[in-house]
Amino acid sequence: MNTLLRSTASCAPSSRWLSPLLACLALAACTTPPLPTEPKTAAPALQTTAANAEPADLDVHAQQFAHWVAEFSQSARTASVDEATLHRAFDTVRFVPRVIELDRAQPEFNRTVWDYLDNAVSKQRVTRGQDKLQQSRADINAAASRYGVPAEILVAIWGMESNYGSFMGDIPSIDALATLGFEGRRGPWARGQLLAALKMLQNHEVERSQMLGSWAGAMGQTQLLPSNYLAYAVDADGDGRRDIWASLPDVMGTTAHFLAKSGWQVNQPWAVEVRLPAGFDLARADGELRQSSAAWQQQGVLSLDSRPLPELPDAAILLTAGARGPAFLVGANFRAILRYNNATSYALAVGLLAQQLAGGPGVQTPWPRDVQALSRTQLLALQAALSAHGFDSGPPDGVMGPATRRAIRAYQRSVGLPQDGYPTLDLLTKLQ
Questions:
Q1: Overall average pLDDT of the 337-366 stretch
Q2: Most C-beta atoms within 10 A of its C-beta, which of 11, 42, 86, 386?
Q3: Positive/negative CA dihedral, 323, 329, 335, 341
Q4: How high is the pLDDT of residue 43?
Q5: What is the dihedral of CA 39, 40, 45, 49, to 10 degrees?
Q6: Distance CA 381, CA 38 (A)
Q7: CB within 8 A of 243, min separation 6: which ones?
């Protein structure tokens, strides 16, 4: 971070393309509409951003960004990226303030799970997915058969990531990843992805103009990150290109290959909605305690229709809405989906969409829809209050993670509440 915030005197250009870059950045920053200001207690950010700066500061910000790009370019050269690729990537690179806004407002983490699922697994998306499944059955089944991943799972990811190829994102991936690397909150991750994107350019996998996608730099019809593209993309149609933008065989083959390499297990369900017995210790439903489904069944966990649980050697109980919401038994395939997007709400959405594409039901247990989601500011306050009471939730970041969930459970145990690890306004009030 200190490197990013040094004075402009230390930002002398180190490459012949930096001067036009500075002019481009300043112009782009001045014409970008203002964005909401992040709470003071949020994760560290740049002291001056294009979203809230005075004109004089915008020039300083542009120079800081250009200096970061120059330094990154030097590290890319060390990693064998050639000059032609650096020019193609960075001659027109821009800082994109909206990327920072979207990074801190991810719906998977900032809405209740039922609100997220209402939108992600809508009737319209189910119906359209069933149509797409029938229209492209041969290509989808070929990938499913080759890699052992159900066709409905592949179509569900396709639907979640790009609404079945209808919108693949409009943010230049190079710009998005450079912005995230410069801003710093996800710096090491973004730098690794940006280097992978440069390798894609250097290998002539894709042109820079085609590298459009999400705020996080993911691309194509199933939104693959650059590092995952390099590792898992396949040429399923045999035309010599790994085309996740326009070739459906490549899209489906790549997605199935990714899941197979991420631990997908043939003939295991993605999850099973279950009923917990009376008096069940909710501290055991933390998503981390794993045992066989047979062991869970011996402890009174049943499927909703009371049939024997499917065979899962390494299963956990997951409560996504606390003690009052549904419970799921999840295994290796749920975790494979999390490798695609490490958000529980996302993995649930993929599984439930796939289940309904196959004619199955949605969630059967009612959601506690009277419970409000905590805002980022409220989650920050909750994390700070937990730490103040001696329950370590890690550095406050306004995002629910394992450390915060463990801290909530520890507090709940100390005051005799059900240990579901779920954040609520009532819990925040008690702590404050």
A1: 96
A2: 386
A3: negative
A4: 33
A5: 70
A6: 14
A7: 235, 237, 250
Q: Please enumerate, as own/partner, the contacts of 278-282 that have beta carbons within 8 Å and a separation of 24 or more.
A: 281/419, 282/319, 282/323, 282/418, 282/419, 282/420, 282/421
Measured CA to CA, the distance from residue 117 to residue 348 in angstroms comes to 8
User: Can you say whether residue 403 is alpha, beta or left, with left for phi > 0 and alpha for psi between -120 and 50 degrees?
Assistant: alpha
Alpha-carbon span 19 to 74, nearest angstrom: 17
Q: Among candidates 249, 96, 247, which has minimal Cα distance to 178?
A: 96
Give the span between the Cα atoms of 273 and 320, in whole angstroms: 11
Place of tokens 């490549």: 250
Q: Which two tokens stand for residue 298?
A: 């011996």
Contact present, 133 and 357 (Cβ < 8 Å): yes
Return the structure tokens found at 58.
């915008």
Q: What does residue 328 show for φ and ψ, rounded to 5 degrees?
A: -130, 140
Token pair for residue 213? 């996608």
Q: Which of 107-111, 120-124, 168-172, 310-314 comes out lowest in average pLDDT?
A: 107-111
| H or E, element range at 212 | strand 212-213
What pLDDT does 56 receive?
55
pLDDT bin (cut points 50, 70, 90) of residue 22 is very low
- DSSP one-letter string for 309-331: PP--SSBEEEESS-TTS-EEEE-
Range scoring the smallest mean pLDDT among 109-113, 127-131, 139-143, 348-352: 109-113
Which residue intervals of 165-304 are DSSP H helices?
173-183, 187-202, 226-232, 248-261, 293-298
CB-CB neighbours of 83 under 10 Å: 11
Is the model's pLDDT at 51 over the cut of 60?
no
pLDDT at 265 over 70: yes
pLDDT in tens, 280-319: 999 999 888 999 999 999 999 999 998 899 999 999 999 9
Strand, helix or coil at 272?
A: strand
**Whole-angstrom distance, CA of residue 399 vs CA of residue 283:** 20
208 in Cβ contact with 89 (< 8 Å): yes
CA dist., res. 176 & res. 182, Å (int): 10
Residue-wise DSSP of 67-109: HHHHHHHHHHHHTT--HHHHHHHHTT----HHHHHHHTT-HHH
The per-residue pLDDT for range 175-217, each reduced to its tens digit, is 999 999 998 788 899 999 999 999 999 999 999 999 999 999 9
